[in-house]
Design goal:
The chain is mainly alpha-helical and 114 residues long. Helix 1 packs across helix 2.
């Protein structure tokens, strides 16, 4: 709020928010809990607050600190999967969905006969 030129007080946030929000007005207590970090506004309210202060809603929800990104854990490949197999998989992933389906059917047909 300070960066946007407003004093970070519940009464100020309460008035500002309710003049911009088209839904049901929020209470002074809600504004106080938001400022105190005791609750997080719903997404539609976050959007109004973000527009009001000129920031992204995610910054309001998660802050802008230097946090470590969470990454999806990669599965380990089975023994025997080498560079050639990985290249084939990468090429497969670039195919359009219909071609992927055809390749999948071919692989399943070959695996049954093996």
């Amino acid at each position: 709020m300070r960066a946007a030129g407003y004093e970070p007080r519940p009464a100020v946030l309460f008035r500002l928010f309710n003049t911009r929000y088209t839904g049901r007005s929020v209470t002074f207590q809600s504004a106080s809990r938001w400022l105190g970090g005791r609750s997080i506004p719903e997404q539609d309210k976050l959007q109004v607050l973000a527009d009001l202060f000129g920031i992204e809603p995610a910054q309001l929800r998660y802050g802008n600190g230097n946090r470590t990104r969470l990454a999806e854990q990669r599965m380990a490949w089975a023994t025997g999967v080498g560079t050639r197999e990985l290249e084939v998989i990468e090429a497969f992933l670039t195919l359009p969905i219909r071609q992927r389906e055809l390749v999948g059917e071919l692989v399943q047909a070959l695996a049954v006969k093996a």
